[in-house]
Write a structure and sequence with these properties.
Oligomer: single chain
Radius of gyration: 13 Å
Strand content: over 45%
Helix content: under 10%
Number of helices: 0
Distance between the termini: 40 Å
Length: 116
């Protein structure tokens, strides 16, 4: 079992920056990928970024503005968000993928609000 706890959300003006963190605990040795998604109320959860080994992948909507990174122990993943726009407002969720079972684990989410 893996537990994920996000932090770092908040209110920021358009053009500003935020850094989200997601700390994993439990059977972290099972994780082979970690990522970020976001969801606006009434809409589907949207993929933002993922990191696996040395590889990263981003949604087109955040390329060049957001950066995903992972610590050496591979138990914490970060999302550096720059040049934030009002449309980035959402609840941001951290995901961890079990490399053997492909089971997804999710955090509780952290609210990001970008004011215009």
């Amino acid at each position: 079992q893996v537990r994920l706890v996000e932090s770092g959300g908040g209110l920021v003006q358009a053009g500003g920056s935020l850094r989200l963190s997601c700390a994993a605990s439990g059977s972290t040795f099972r994780i082979n990928a970690m990522g970020w998604y976001r969801q606006v109320s009434g809409k589907q959860r949207e993929f933002i970024a993922i990191i696996s080994g040395g590889s990263t992948n981003y949604a087109d909507s955040v390329k060049g503005r957001f950066t995903i990174a992972r610590d050496n122990a591979k138990t914490t993943v970060y999302l550096q968000m720059n040049s934030l726009k009002p449309e980035d407002t959402a609840v941001y969720y951290c995901e961890a993928v079990d490399g053997n079972t492909r089971v997804d684990y999710w955090g509780q989410g952290t609210q990001v609000t970008v004011s215009s």
